[in-house]
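re: ur question from the group chat, yeah i did fold both. here u go
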Amino acid sequence: MFVNNCPELVSLSEGGLPSNLCLLSITFCDKIMLGMEWGLHKLHRLSQLEIEGGCKNVESFPEEKLLPSNLNSLCISRFSNLKYLDYNGLQHLTALNSLEISSCDELQSLPEEALPSSLSLLCIKECSLLKSKLLNNKGKEWFKLAHISCIEIDDEIIKDWSEIADVSCKETDDDVNLLEEP
């Protein structure tokens, strides 16, 4: 389901999303306010979630139990007040393979404890405060990424252990996709 360019949309109501939803993309809905009332945690078939813009109420993401544990891919962009990623909200995402964070200029750090161990691809774009802590593969936050096979920062592949992990980073039309090799 794609929700695009709805400048007055504030929320998605619980029960308003189909239970068999696999993909949810919300873009350019600048007044959207993310919250538990959306019922995302109940969408057990949701595997891909993209939210671009809005969410001005969010300083920490994701709220604990906000997202379904079976989520494979998460992309967040233009969260203007996002300061940190919440370990308690990420720890139960046991199927999360791909995480993309872009244009979150206030994002200062990754969770102290760690990102999910299932994560194979991390893409960070235009997050200047966080990028400075990841520079030269040895910044203050770098140790938190040791388990991730492929890391891309501002369109530069920083780490690609595809031969070891049987995954590879491949760019396609400015998007990064995780491809499992047969």
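okk and heres the other one u asked abt
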Amino acid sequence: MIVPVALDYCYGTEARAEAFIRFGKPLSRAELGATRPEVHHRLETELEATLEALSHDVAHRRLDQFKTLAKGRAGMGGLYAVLQRIVAMMKGQEYEPRHARR
């Protein structure tokens, strides 16, 4: 069994990058083909399709298609974060360090 795996490492709305992973359709040995060129072509086609689907979802921020495995800190920190807190307090709003709500 072979499973195509696509990775996308990009910067979204936060200062730190996000990593996205998409697993493609599992392929049995019989589905790959008989000759080396057939196997190569099938693997290339399946991996390309998996990467295209991943890239589309990431570019359109379709985050409901993904499961979060680990989260880092949000926001910028430092003086900028202090100013954000003051502005939120003056507006009577809750401080939200993320640049975009998900």
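fwiw on the second one: Residues 74-102 form one domain. Helices lie at 29-32, 36-59, 78-91. idk if thats what u expected
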